[in-house]
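Predict both folds.
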Amino acid sequence: MICIKDLIYRYDDNKTISFPDIDINVSDKVLIVGPSGCGKSTLLNLIAGAIKIQKGSISFESTKLEKMSSISLDRFRAENIGYIFQTLNLIPFLSVYENIELGVKFSTKRASRVDDITEEIRRLINSLGLDTSVLKRKVSQLSIGQQQRVAAARALLGKPALLLADEPTSALDRKSAMNFLNEIDNTFDKSCQSLLMVSHDESLISYFDKVVRLN
């Protein structure tokens, strides 16, 4: 599904990171581990097309991201990627339902995979350990752990091919983190989706099929 090769990124302060070659197949759960400042979030943003590739190649099936325009990359991200941000990026004045629904608002491909959006949102919320009674509440009224699950439901809605997760368990204790990862595993469709997560927490390694270390 994803092939990363000879990828190099230079920051404005001339710091340069050379990323290892990575192959991600359908159903893979891949963990990128490394200390702060090693480029984990940068790698996710390069894969998502949020940062322009400077040198090297990222291929998504037959599509080469480095050859795409900014507008095409935005469209590609909306159609193919569900992103669980470290800061969650939920909209506080919207309800839980409205925040999750945003997952398909900008993608006809993802929207076409959902026959009944309301029922699918209810299913996702339940599978991620929340009661459907939270759907009418504003996300600002939820705990961090609950908000984390809302962000995951938004990323999962419409079955995007690739789920990217940037330190999604950083605000959770060990038990809550493992519960969250188990819920993600039970919810995402292994027949057509893959998961790529970055973290500094090596205690999560046993959950993943592949581990890539950044220095």
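Second protein follows, with its predicted structure tokens after the sequence.
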Amino acid sequence: MILVTANQPKQLLYVHFIGQVGCEELKECRQELESFLPEFTPGFRLITDLSNLSKFEVSCASEIAKMMELLDEKEIGTVIRVIPDPSKDFGLTILALFHYRRPLTAITCKTLSEAADSLK
């Protein structure tokens, strides 16, 4: 399951991955993000919360890359990842190197509280 929340006044998107996530869910998530993005200005922020993610299907890498490219196209400024266990990064750090072409701030936190503190 993927939950997407947008807070336009704070220029913040929040994406929470729960359980096992497949390609179809990621496509739906990308469409949700597309619907929110017109409300956001260059430099907006994203929190990606992997604290409850157990597994991405292997075939999801291309869909994650498309999502990153969409956000890059809309001029994302900050990406904050909540990854309690560094071994469960699922390749997001490596994908980011190739699919975010604009300079951006990337922060990895162990908890959602840490992520919230980094927004201040």
